[in-house]
Amino acid sequence: MFLRALFAASALAAAPAVHGQPAAATAPDRPVAREILAELVGQDTSEPNGDITAAAEKLAARLRAAGFSEKDVVVVGPPKRGNLVARLRGNGKKKPVLLLAHLDVVPARREDWSFDPFKLLEKDGYFYGRGTSDIKDGAAILTTLLLKLKHEGVVMDRDVVVALTADEEGGPEDGVDWLLKNRRDLVEAELCLNTDGGDFQEKGGKKLVCSVQASEKLPVGYFLEVRDKGGHSSLPVKENAIYRLAAALSRLSAYEFPVHLNEVTRAYLAHRAKTEAGALASDLSKSLATPPDAPAIARLSSASPYFNALFRTTCVATMLEAGHAPNALPQLARATVNCRILPGETPEEVLAALRRVVDDERVAARIDPTWGVVEASPASPLRDDVLAAVAQARSALWPGAAVVPVMETGATDGFFLRRAGIPTYGISGVFIDMDDVRAHGRDERVPVSSFYEGLEFWARLVRATAGGGASGKPAK
C-alpha cells in the first residue's frame, strides 16, 4: 500500500497545476506567520497556571477580522482552557478535514533559560521560545494558512477545520477529549492531520525523513504496592515491604514484553533497512521476518531504546515511595510503573503480565487512575491518498526526503481522535535536527528556514488533501 501511494505521488507531482487552486505559501505570508508565532510565544499558556483562552481569543480576533463569521470561529471550553475551532467552508463534495495543533506548553522558568522563554527571539537562524517546536509553530502555520485561503476566496472540496486546543501537555480533560465529548459537531471530520506528531527529521542540514505518524502507544500508569504491619526499626525482621518490592522490581527490570510488529512499524523498519548499511541493515531486514529473528531483535533492542520501544510494549519504574519514619519499619512501599502499550494490546493484558512477572501475591498491582488513559486507540490505516498528498507536497521542497510511516512511542492528542473513529496522521511539516531535540527543554528552538518551509509545505498539503480550490466566495 505504501509503495503504491508513493508511485501515485510521483505522478501527481509531475502533473501540471490546476488553474484556480490556491497558491503555495509565498514570501508575503512569512511576516504574518512570524507575527502570529511571536504573539503565541509571548502568551504564557503553560500548565497549570497559563491562560490558554487568552491565546485562543487573540487568534479568533484575527480570523474574524479577516472575514470569518462568528459561527465559524468559536472558542469553547472551561475558563482559561479554551479551544479555538475555525472552519473554512468548502463546497461539500467531500467530508471535512481537521487540522490540529495545541496551544498549551510545558512550564519554563526564566532562571533555567538563557533568555526569556515567553518572548520570541530570532538569533543565528533560529526562533527561540517556549513552544517554538511544541507546537506553537504548528498553530501559527495553520492560522496563517486559514487567513491566506480566506483572503484568496478559495472554495475547497472539503471544509477545512482548524482546532487549536488546550491540555495536550497537562492532561486530556479540557482539549481534544473535551471537544469530542461536548462539541463533536465542531471537529467531526473524515480525517485529521496533526502538526503535533510525525516530526520531519534532518541531520547536518540534510533533509532525511518526512514522517507520517499513523499510530501511537497507549500511556498507562500502574502501581506496585506492598503493605506490612511495620514495627520498630530496632527490631528488624526478614519480612520488609521495601525489600519485597525491590525484589519484584528486579524481576520486572529483567522482563521483556513479546515482540509485536504492525503495518506502521513494519513500513518504518523496511525503510530503515534500505537506508542503513552493514550489520544494522542486516538486522533490520531480519527483524521483518516471520517470525522475527530473535537474535537480530535482541541486538537492535540493546543498541537503541527507540528500536526496543518500536518492537514491544515497555514498562519502567519511574517513582518510589516507602516508609513513614526513619526509625520505623515500612508499612507501605509503592512503585509507580509507566507503561507504553502497543496498539492492539490492552491495559488489562499488561496488568495481567505485570502480575505474572512479579509472581508474588504480597505485591499488589493495579492501574493508576490519575495518570494516562486506559481505553485503547487503534492505528490509523496507511491511506494511499494521505501518503500521496504528503509526497506531493514534499516533492517541490525536499525531493530527496523519504515519506515514512512511523509509530509514536510517546503520545499525542491524535490518540483520542483515532479512538473516536477519526483516522489521524501526525505530520509536522517542520524539520528538526534529530540530534538537537529541545521540546520541553531549555532554550527550545526551531530553525527559521524550517518554519517558513513548513508554512509552504502545509499550503501544498492542504491543497492536495482538500482538493478543488477554485477562487470565489466561500460556500455558506
Look at the helices and sheets and give the structural class: alpha/beta
Integer count of domains: 2
Classify the fold: give the CATH topology of the largest domain. Answer: Aminopeptidase
Rg calc: 24 Å
CATH level 4 superfamily of the largest domain: Zn peptidases
Short précis:
The protein has 476 residues and is of the alpha/beta class. It has helices spanning 2-14, 29-42, 52-65, 136-152, 176-182, 184-187, 241-254, 263-275, 278-287, 294-303, 305-311, 347-358, 384-395, 414-419, 448-466, and strands spanning 73-76, 83-88, 97-102, 121-123, 126-128, 154-156, 160-165, 191-194, 200-203, 206-216, 218-227, 231-232, 314-322, 328-329, 332-341, 364-372, 402-408, 424-426, 431-433, 445-447, 468-471. Strand 4 and strand 5 form a beta hairpin.
Q: How would you describe this structure to a colleague?
A:
Helices cover 36% and strands 24% of the residues. The chain is of the alpha/beta class and 476 residues long. The protein has two domains: 2-215 and 378-471, Aminopeptidase (3-Layer(aba) Sandwich); 218-257 and 313-341 and 344-372, Alpha-Beta Plaits (2-Layer Sandwich). A six-stranded mixed β-sheet has the order 1-2-7-3-8-18. Strands 17-10-9-19 form a four-stranded mixed β-sheet. A hairpin with a 2-residue loop joins strand 9 and strand 10 (206-216). It is globular, with a radius of gyration of 24 Å. The model is unreliable at 1-22 and 472-476 (pLDDT under 50).
